[in-house]
Amino acid sequence: MPHPLLPLAASAPAETPPHTGGLLLLLDGSAGLLTVAAIGIALLLFLIIKVRLQPFVALLGVSIAVGLMAGLSVTELFGTVQRSDAVSTIESGMGGILGHVAIIIGLGTMLGAILEVSGGAEVLAGRLLGMFGEKRAPLAMGLTGLIFGIPVFFDVGIFVLAPIVYAAAKRSGKSILLYCLPLLAGLSVTHAFLPPHPGPVAAAGLLHVDLGWVILMGIVCGLPAVAAAWVFSAWIGKRIFVAVPQDMVEAAQEAKDAVAAEQRASGVEPREAPVPLGTVLGIIGTPLILILAATFSSIALDESTLRSVIEFFGHPFVALTLALFLAYYLLGIRRGWSRKSLETVSTSSLKPVGNILLVVGAGGVFGAVLKASGVAQALSDTFNDVGLPVIVLSYLISVVLRVAQGSATVAIVTTAGIVAPLLAEGDHSQAFVALVIMAISAGSIFASHVNDGGFWMVAKYFGISERDTLKTWTVLESVLSVAGFVVAAALSLVV
After folding, report:
1. Distance (Å, rounded) from C-alpha 137 to C-alpha 135?
2. pLDDT for 339-378, tens place per residue?
3. In the chain, what's the furthest Cα-to-Cα distance?
4. Of residues 379, 420, 375, 415, the one with CA closest to residue 395
5. 51, 57, 423, 427: least buried by Cβ within 10 Å?
């Protein structure tokens, strides 16, 4: 097995795929394929950045263009009605990734919605603030973001937890940055590094890694990264004062009242007693523990009934379903919710998921087209000749795509499709490939700036000027990115 941080040995040049047409007629072999790759990536960035085309449409359109330019036939790309045995590259790419990702993201989204509506975030933040006291309130906010960020999307975490940040900053009279930046660091790390969030789940599916390894490496790489970000938050929060945005305080209360009214209209009973903290932590931790147990039972146990049982309950589909049922009962039915209420919350939570799944699926199509056309192999051979380790290349590609077009999900799925052939060539362990995913994920959050929706969400919700957002949030994301990558690269030396 090649050492993970040594340059990969140059492989034999890939044979030109057995296709005709496209740029391969004009340029010779690998040169034509590399030209196709360059045009495809440039076109993708142009469509997303300049044309403002929806990323799903841009990825799908570029995938078709790359396939045709590389010489894939229409039948190879789309299949045909007349020949039922013809394999459609687009359908297999879309179906292959979504068969793995859609269920996990769907179950995780519903779980997060139940925790959100039941008041789990307020309980978690309130208890941690009480435990750590006023002086360590920033640390309490950071831990709240880190824990509550596991089952909920980044933007939902901001929406739910922002009023708690307002209250803590108002009581202390200090800059809101001292409280919001640690929270944002926790939310960002879980969003980038841990399942069931779309990025790491999609990368695991594209690179064929067990989620248990992704969870383990996400924790190992994410915790030092968030610690470094908290140090930066404490430093910058004392140097830049940002007052609590009173208009956002009022808007948050109005939004909260509107949500409560909508829930009552939909049949969701208002909560009366606070949710026990142990219940919140237990529900969040259950799927993580089950998935980790299943992943490592294959190492610690021989084939047996016990191992089969552990692997069954630790399969991501089963583990997340069990956690969702626990949330339904402990946070819903046992606290007086009707079945209709549970259905309403679950169904409404899935509405924003469609866009995410389509983008992830289109990323799977892009990767499948790169592989089928030979473009991916040509890129692999070129990267081998460059001499950089695969984990470094993965990070750099992800950083470039992230900074150029802003979307972390697009950066992850595109990078995973590009580097997949490099990993397929060597006998790499699951642990090493999981670290490559961590490098890709770390690159996908580097230098959030004006082309990233998260940049404007942070600026708006916490009343930070664009200039100060660049000095604080953009740098915070870069600290998280670099620290996470450094840990991943260092661990790859010993894995």
Report:
1. 6
2. 888 888 888 888 878 888 998 898 888 888 888 888 877 8
3. 72
4. 415
5. 427
The domain locations on the chain are: 96-212+246-349
Q: Crossing angle of helices 55-70/408-425, nearest 10°?
A: 40
Q: Using CA of residue 44, residue 46, residue 49, residue 51, what is the dihedral sign?
A: negative
Task: For residue 111, report the phi and psi dihedrals to the nearest 5 degrees.
Answer: -60, -45
Q: Which residues of 321-345 are buried (b: 16+ CB within 10 A; e: fewer)?
A: bbbbebbbebbbeebebeeebbebb
Residue where the block lists tokens 């930070």: 464
Indicate the burial class of 89 (C-beta count within 10 angstroms; 0-12, 13-18, 19 or more).
buried
Give the per-residue SS3 of 121-141.
Answer: HHHHHHHHHHHHCCCCHHHHH
The token pair that represents 176 in the structure block: 């809101």
As to burial, measured by CB atoms within 10 angstroms (0-12 exposed, 13-18 middle, 19+ buried), residue 7 is middle
Average per-residue pLDDT in the chain?
85
| Residues 6 or more apart in contact with residue 402 via CB below 8 angstroms | 408, 411, 443, 444, 445, 446, 447
Q: Does position 1 have pLDDT exceeding 60, yes or no?
A: no
Structural element, H or E, at residue 200: helix 198-207
- pLDDT tens for 84-131 read 566 788 988 898 888 878 999 999 999 998 988 888 888 888 889 888
Query: Minimal CA–CA distance to 208: which of 336, 100, 294, 123?
Result: 100
Report the range of poorest mean pLDDT among 27-41, 176-190, 462-476: 27-41
Taking residue 3's Cβ as centre, other Cβ atoms within 10 Å add up to 11
**Beta-carbon count within 10 A of 386 CB:** 10
| C-alpha span between 106 and 344 (Å, rounded) | 15
At 239-296, the pLDDT tens digits run 999 998 887 777 666 666 665 666 666 555 555 567 888 999 999 999 999 999 998 8
Q: Residue 51: name the closest of 365, 410, 405, 401 by CA.
A: 405
Q: How far is CA 225 from CA 186, 229, 407, 486, in A?
A: 10, 6, 20, 9
- The alpha-carbon radius of gyration of the chain (Å, integer) is 23
What is the pLDDT, as a whole number, of residue 297? 86
Which residue has tokens 């056309």?
373
Long-range contacts of 466-471 (CB under 8 A, 24+ apart): 468/240, 468/242, 471/236, 471/240
pLDDT at 164 over 70: yes
One-letter amino acid of 399: V
